[in-house]
Amino acid sequence: MSETTQTPPAGEAAPVPPLVVNIQYVKDLSFEVPGAPAIFTQLRAQPQVAINLDVQARRIQDGQPVFEVSLVIRAEAHDPSPQTNGQTAPAVPPTVFVAELTYAGVFTLNGLPDNAVEPVLLVECPRILFPFARNILSDVTRDGGFPPVLLQPIDFVALWQSRRAGAGAAQPAVVA
Fold it and tell me: Mind listing the domains of the chain with CATH numbers?
């Protein structure tokens, strides 16, 4: 099939999309294995991974509809069955690895009503970024010598709604 691009008639501007992805990038990435190399011989079961995810958005320049949206993900894995040598198990299982990723994008919003800006920045933009961040986290943990961490799909609408309910009017979700 061929694609046809229609040019607008003379004097008319091309329609501007309401959401433009300018760039996506890894803003920060850290992977630590505090017990290496011993942890690789001591680990008897797949580590238990706790995931913490946050979405942050900020306006890049005052008066401009250009925003940076960041997915901040922290995956911390613990050994579910540490060797105790007959002693009581420690209260906090040993840390196997810690992966921290901030994956960001710069987005331009065109012609959106004021009440639509926050949901677009905290729901739609993270939906665009998430598959890429998920892949990076999976690759990093696999390349670190562990089973890949595969994030399950995130309901960004529910995350945004719970953030609004928890924060109330105390703090804005989008930094202007």
Answer: 19-81+92-166 (3.10.420.10)
Tell me the pLDDT tens digit for each residue of 14-25: 677 889 999 999
Query: Taking Cα atoms as reference points, which of 118, 96, 91, 93 lies closest to residue 107?
Result: 118
Separation of alpha carbons 58 and 65, rounded Å: 10
**Do 174 and 58 touch, CB atoms closer than 8 A?**
yes
For 159, the enclosing helix (H) or strand (E) is helix 156-167
Among 159, 82, 171, 169, residue whose Cα is nearest residue 123: 159
pLDDT 10s digits, 123-158: 999 999 999 999 999 999 999 999 999 999 999 999
Q: SS3 of 69, please? A: strand
